[in-house]
Amino acid sequence: MPSKTAAGRFEKYAARARAGGADFARVIPARQVVIAEWVRLKCQYGCGGFNKRLCCPPHSPSPETTRRMLGEYRHALVYSYPGRESARHRAKMMRLLAGIERAAFLDGHYRAFAMGAGPCRLCRTCNVGGLCRFPYLARPAMEACGIDVYATARHAGIPLEVVTRADGPVRYVSLVLLD
User: How many other CB atoms are found less than 10 A from the CB of residue 19?
Assistant: First the structure.
């Protein structure tokens, strides 16, 4: 558990996540964010977004890069929200994520960095051969960077389970790394 000082210092970002639609938000020590090589392989061999979006592999940071970067942080805000597949809802959650990162930056946490849930869907077709059309909103997917979302969510106390039915409840998890 982070110290009460750290939890209190970052609580306003957890509150902002909840106000924006998250049903759970907690600050955890950054060392509890789990990185595993197999996660990125699941993106490559289990997701239709591979090499089709700038926030997905091979364009996203590698697990090794993520591991090194994570060592530069002490805290991570982890939050979850119920999944809806509408483009409008996904764009709203991307704006929330980027907004929390920006708020932390403006509060003096200039190293704040956010990672989203699943492939970016801000554009119908991603401009993979060029620059991102929404660089202020788009963030790499946690899993694209090698983060084991299930293990990390469980460290934060989020009861995340594999969805086994097409009509099962979907839950997305995002995180913001904080100094």
Answer: 10
Q: Domain boundaries in the chain?
A: 4-161
Cα separation, 13 vs 61, in Å, equals 24
- Percent of the chain at pLDDT > 70 equals 95
Give the pLDDT band (50/70/90) at residue 165: confident
**Cα distances (angstroms) measured from residue 50 to each of 45, 88, 139, 143, 149:** 8, 22, 15, 12, 18
8-state DSSP, 144: G
d(CA 154, CA 156): 5
3-state secondary structure of 11: helix
User: How far, in Å, CA of 124 to CA of 14, rounded?
Assistant: 30
